[in-house]
Specification:
Blueprint (H helix, E strand, L loop, with lengths): L2 E6 L3 H11 L5 E7 L2 H11 L3 E5 L7 H7 L5 E6 L5 H6 L4 E4 L4 H19 L13 E6 L2 E6 L5 E5 L2 E5 L6 E2 L3 H7 L5 E3 L4 E4 L3 E6 L5 E5 L4 E4 L1 H11 L2
């Protein structure tokens, strides 16, 4: 099957350049284009593309703000005339970064990487409308931004009206409730341990009995998390043979 792609780019000439490059690749089908973030958001929500060609510097809202609006981020290839964004975009775990005017060989290489990434993503069997471990979410906390795989997150924790996300050595805040996040997470690897926290069971280093029938989990990053008594019984059943 062809990979489905959309372009979100405010420059008509830049959109045309990308469309001409795509004509040379039968493995990709362009299913839509948008000239700003809001129309791009609607397009992505309606069409569910595999690949997003995204300009960073756009009027009103930039490309990073679009990613922040999405629950499930497509495979993203940044396109921009400003190479100052190059290092930053790779910090966000973007698949690739194309500098305008786009070189045909670099474009072909980016598509090869996208196809490999898509095959990897499809191997994850997402259930219903839930995300898979390979699905990506965009997190913006102040000036810092990340495009992170769900499976790379060790746990989530309520902080007021926000949810703190734990991955690598980072602790950014996401403006979503823990309940909203829980509805999207893959059930086979994420578990609600108490009212405040959800953990990725793949990041548990050890489990020890705690007071009043509770359990305490030590995560691979060194954090210790207490499982409520009720959830401790469910956890034992879930994790037993």
């Amino acid at each position: 099957m062809k990979m489905k792609a959309v372009i979100v780019e405010d420059s008509r000439l830049a959109r045309q350049e990308l469309k001409e490059l795509l004509k040379q690749h039968d493995e990709v089908e362009l299913i839509g284009e948008a000239g700003n973030v809001d129309s791009g958001y609607e397009l992505i929500q309606n069409e569910h593309p595999d690949i997003l060609f995204l300009d960073i510097n756009m009027p009103e809202k930039d490309g990073f703000e679009l990613l922040e609006m999405l629950d499930d981020v497509p495979i993203t290839i940044f396109t921009t005339a400003f190479d100052e964004y190059a290092i930053k975009s790779f910090e966000y775990n973007a698949l690739d970064y194309l500098l305008k005017p786009v070189n045909a060989k670099r474009f072909a290489l980016a598509l090869e990487k996208a196809e490999a990434k898509l095959n990897e993503k499809k191997s994850q069997n997402a259930k219903g409308n839930r995300l898979s471990a390979d699905s990506q979410i965009f997190i913006k906390d102040g000036e810092a931004c990340w495009l992170i795989k769900i499976g790379e997150i060790s746990h989530f924790e309520i902080v007021g009206n926000y949810t703190r996300v734990f991955f690598q050595d980072k602790r950014p805040l996401l403006y979503k409730s823990l309940n909203q996040i829980e509805e999207k997470l893959p059930e086979d690897s994420f578990f609600r341990v108490n009212r405040q926290q959800i953990i990725n069971t793949n990041y548990i280093e050890s489990v020890v009995p705690w007071f009043n029938g509770k359990l305490k989990l030590k995560m691979k990053n060194g954090d210790e998390i207490e499982v409520s008594r009720r959830q401790s019984y469910i956890f034992k059943d879930k994790m037993s043979l």
